[in-house]
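Minutes, project check-in
Item: structure for the 292-residue chain
Input as provided by the requester:
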Amino acid sequence: MISAVVLLLAVSATFMGIGIVYKRVPNTVKGEDVMFWYSLFSLVLLLPVELYSGTISSVPIPWVVGLLLIGNFNIFGMLLLQTAMKCGNSGIAWALTQSALIGPFLFGMFFFGEKHSLFGMTGLCLVLLGMACQAESGGKTSGAVPCRIHSLIPAFCAFLCCAVTQTGLTISGYSAIPMSGTDKTFLLALGAVAGLLIFKLSRRSTSFALSGKMTVTALLLCVLSLASTLLLFLALDKLAAFSLAGLAYPVSLGSSIAGFALYSAYIEKEKLSCRQTAGIISIIVGIFLLGF
């Protein structure tokens, strides 16, 4: 059990690392360029595994198309998250985006007839309440950046994109189609690359800037993303032995939100009102309760 807890903390740390990299992307670097190279590098790293396994060829075309589209929602959700971090409080943006876990929770309840405990329903209410607490405008400040209501718009849009992504992946989990985690990750990255290329072409541009700093950032995101996936699978295996696998996502996401909120407050010096702080705490507790 101790090893499972250590693995969950490691997953949380990699999640936080991804958020910190998003926050630290220089203003001189375009987010879509970073996301393109990150997705492309991920494809290159995963390609040998896919060629060796050969399982992706057995995935039906409708599922391939669906996962490619989900890859678009995922990558543009990350771009919106970056935007939200740049124009507002990054701790709030991170908490709102990670609240996307309620997407598959609601979908399973309404479309697959899943029964949830009182703890789970309480958690859902607390997450929604915490999100509502962030809808604050006026003269509040976030470091040196004015925190107006328009800074929350990209954060809520990122939440919607990530909710669609997680719900889509949950639906694929209900299917009887044999798809490995590597297959899904590969198709998501391929969809992201294709979507970003179309996005560039729509703006009459076909090039993505590449520099030393861009390469390091994209590779760092690759390593953190793959590490978080691997560690999460290991944690799921450990927790499954105790019939606690359902706690993996809530605990790792909840602790990453708490950790990132502390990082933004003490390292980035971003201010939160009492209401916003209470909202983030409500989200953390709510996400944890979703696992019961």
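Outcome recorded: Residues 137-147 have pLDDT under 50 and may be disordered.
No further action items on this chain.
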